[in-house]
Design goal:
Layout lengths: L1 E5 L4 H12 L3 E6 L9 H4 L3 E4 L17 E4 L10 H19 L3 E7 L8 H13 L5 E7 L2 E2 L4 H12 L2 E5 L5 E2 L2 E2 H10 L9 E5 L5 E2 H11 L5 E5 L4 H11 L4 H10 L11 H4 L7 H13 L13 H4 L3 H5 L7 E8 L5 H9 L11 H13 L20 E2 L2 E7 L4 E6 L5 E9 L3 E10 L1 H28 L16
Parallel strand pairs: 1-2, 1-4, 2-3, 4-5, 5-6, 6-11, 7-10, 8-13
Antiparallel strand pairs: 9-12, 14-19, 15-16, 16-17, 17-18, 18-19
Helix pairs in contact: 1-6, 3-4, 5-7, 7-11, 8-9
C-alpha cells in the first residue's frame, strides 16, 4: 500500500512513520525540509522523501505513484494568533493537491470537538475537518483529547507541573473532564483505520479507559511517582494569567500555553465509542501510560518530542540555509583547548551530552538566568531540555538552541539559537585529534544587535573560555583492576 505522510517531523508523525514501515507500507514523507527528517537510519532507508510546503501551493511536488491513503497531521498552534488562518490555508491547498493526485483515503487526527462553545484552537481543528470533507476522497477523522506519551506536550506539561510544584494554586478549569489516551493507542487507531472501508467518510472520538478531571489527572500522576501534591482551585485566575503561569512554570511556549488554556474550558471526553468495535485494541489506562512514558525516558528511547517543531524564527527557512555559518558582518568568540588524543571519544561524549540535565559545563546559574530572561521576553527558555541525554540528531531541540548538524564521526556539532535575540546566533564545536575548537557567532540586526553583543562581551569572555576548558577536563578517572584512588580509605 502506498501511503503519503504529512507532518512526518512531528511528534505523532515520526512514530507513525516507523509503525507504517514496520507494517510493510510504502511510505512517502512529504516535509518542508528533507534535511530535518531525522527518523532512525533503518527507517530512512525505506521511506521516500518529498519536499513541499502546504502554505505555498506552488511548492508542492508531483507524487510519483498512485497514493492509496494519506495522513494529514499538519497544525500551526505555535504560529501565533493567526494560526487558524494558516491551518485553513494549508488544508485548502492539501485538498487541491489530493484531488489532483486522486488519493483514495485521507486520515486526519483532530481534537475532541463535542462542545458547542469551542476554543479558537478546537474551532480551527473542526474547520480543517470541514475543509478536508470537501475533497474528492474518503475522509476518516479521529478526534483525540489529551495524548499521554514520552515527549508529548500534554505529558511534558503535566510532568513539569507535578514534579516542580508541591502546592498548586490552579484555575477553576482543573475541574473540567478529560479522557486521556496513550500515544500507543493513538498510533494503533491511526494504523487501524488505514484502508478500512468501514471507516470511510466517518469521524470517531478516541479516548482512553477513564473520564477524569484535570485535577485528578495531576493527582494520579503524583501518586504514580510517589509524590504528595495539593491542588487549590481558585476562580480569580483568568485565561491570560493562567497562560502566563503555565508558560513560566512549564517548558511550553506562550502561544501554545494560551491555546491550551483556551481549550481547557471545554470538556475533552468522548461522546461515542464506535471505533472500539471497528478497530478493537487493548486500551491502556492513564497510570500505565505514565509508567510506559517513564520507561522510555529511563531507557533513553524517546522517539519524538513535541519540541521537535521549529520555532517561528527558523520555521520559514531550511536547515541547509543555516548550516553555512556566515563570516561577514558577524561578531565571533573563538576558543580552543587541547586534550590528550586518547581521550577524544570521551571529549565527544562530553560535547554530545551538553545542555539538558548535564548543563553547560560552566556558569549554569548564568545560563539559567539567560533562560529566565528569554522566557520573560516571550522566548522558549531553557526548560525544553533535550529529547535524549546522550544522542543528538539534526532538528533536535537543545534548551534554547536547535541542532543543525550532529556529525559525531567528524566531530562537528552546530547549534542555532532559538532564543529572543536582536540578531542570529550559532554555537559550533569541532573536536579535532587533540583539540576542541569552539566558535560562537552572532550576526546582529541594527544598532540594538551590536549593543547586545558588547553588553554580553564580559560574560562571554569567561563563560565560553571556561566552558570549553571544562568539556576537555571533565574526564572520568579510569582505575586499573584492584586499584584505588590514593585518598581512598
Amino acid at each position: 500500500m502506498n501511503v503519503l505522510l504529512t507532518g512526518a517531523n512531528g511528534y505523532i508523525g515520526k512514530r507513525l512513520a516507523i509503525h507504517l514501515v514496520d507494517a510493510g507500507a510504502n511510505v512517502f514523507c512529504l516535509v518542508r525540509d528533507k534535511n530535518r527528517l531525522n527518523l532512525p537510519d533503518s527507517i530512512m532507508e525505506k521511506v521516500s522523501i518529498l519536499e513541499g510546503d502546504f502554505l505555498v501551493s506552488k511548492s508542492l511536488p508531483k507524487v510519483p505513484v498512485k497514493i492509496d491513503a494519506a495522513y494529514y497531521l499538519i497544525h500551526s498552534m505555535k504560529s501565533g494568533s493567526d494560526f487558524d488562518t494558516l491551518e485553513s490555508r494549508a488544508a485548502k491547498n492539501f485538498v487541491s493537491f489530493a484531488n489532483k493526485s486522486q488519493f483514495r483515503q485521507v486520515i486526519y487526527l483532530s481534537g475532541l470537538v463535542n462542545d458547542e462553545d469551542l476554543s479558537k484552537h478546537l474551532s480551527s481543528r473542526k474547520r480543517v475537518e470541514d475543509i478536508l470533507g470537501e475533497g474528492k476522497f474518503h475522509l476518516t477523522t479521529l478526534r483525540a483529547g489529551i495524548i499521554i506519551g514520552s515527549g508529548s506536550a500534554s505529558f511534558e506539561i503535566l510532568r513539569d507541573l507535578v514534579e516542580k510544584l508541591p502546592v498548586m494554586v490552579a484555575p477553576k478549569w482543573v475541574s473540567n473532564k478529560c479522557q486521556p489516551i496513550s500515544i500507543t493507542n493513538v498510533i494503533e487507531y491511526l494504523a487501524g483505520v488505514l484502508g478500512n472501508e468501514a471507516c470511510f467518510d466517518q469521524h470517531f472520538d478516541i479516548g482512553g479507559t477513564e473520564q477524569i478531571s484535570y485535577k485528578d489527572m495531576m493527582l494520579q500522576y503524583a501518586d504514580t511517582r510517589g509524590l504528595n501534591r495539593w491542588i487549590i482551585s481558585v476562580p480569580v485566575l483568568t485565561p491570560n494569567l493562567s497562560s502566563l503561569w503555565l508558560y513560566f512554570i512549564t517548558s511550553t511556549s506562550f502561544p501554545l500555553a494560551r491555546h491550551l488554556v483556551d481549550s481547557l474550558k471545554n470538556n475533552a471526553v468522548c461522546k461515542e465509542n464506535r471505533i472500539r468495535e471497528i478497530v478493537p485494541i487493548e486500551l491502556i489506562s492513564f497510570k500505565t501510560s505514565i509508567k510506559k512514558a517513564f520507561d522510555k525516558i529511563e531507557q533513553n528511547t524517546v522517539i519524538s518530542s513535541w519540541v521537535d517543531a521549529f520555532s517561528m524564527g527558523i520555521h520559514k527557512r531550511k536547515i541547509h540555509d543555516l548550516i553555512e555559518v556566515p563570516e561577514w558582518g558577524c561578531f565571533k568568540d573563538l576558543q580552543a583547548f587541547p586534550f590528550q588524543p586518547q581521550n577524544r571519544q570521551q571529549i565527544l561524549d562530553n560535547v554530545w551530552k551538553i545542555g539538558g540535565s548535564t548543563g553547560w559545563y560552566y556558569g549554569d546559574f548564568l545560563w539559567q538566568i539567560r533562560g529566565f530572561l528569554d522566557k520573560l521576553f516571550g522566548g522558549v527558555g531553557l526548560r525544553r531540555g533535550r529529547r535524549s541525554p546522550i544522542h543528538l540528531t539534526a532538528g533536535d531541540s537543545l534548551d534554547f538552541w536547535r541542532v543543525l548538524m550532529a556529525d559525531r564521526k567528524n566531530g562537528r556539532l552546530l547549534l542555532y539559537a532559538e532564543m529572543k535575540l536582536p540578531g542570529e546566533a550559532w554555537l559550533e564545536f569541532k573536536v579535532e585529534a587533540n583539540k576542541v575548537r569552539q566558535t560562537a557567532t552572532f550576526r546582529p540586526i541594527g544598532v540594538w544587535g551590536r549593543l547586545y553583543w558588547f553588553l554580553m562581551l564580559p560574560f562571554h569572555e569567561f563563560i565560553f573560555k571556561n566552558m570549553v576548558k571544562e568539556i576537555c577536563e571533565d574526564i572520568p578517572v579510569k582505575l586499573m583492576p584492584h586499584s584505588k584512588p590514593a585518598n581512598a580509605a
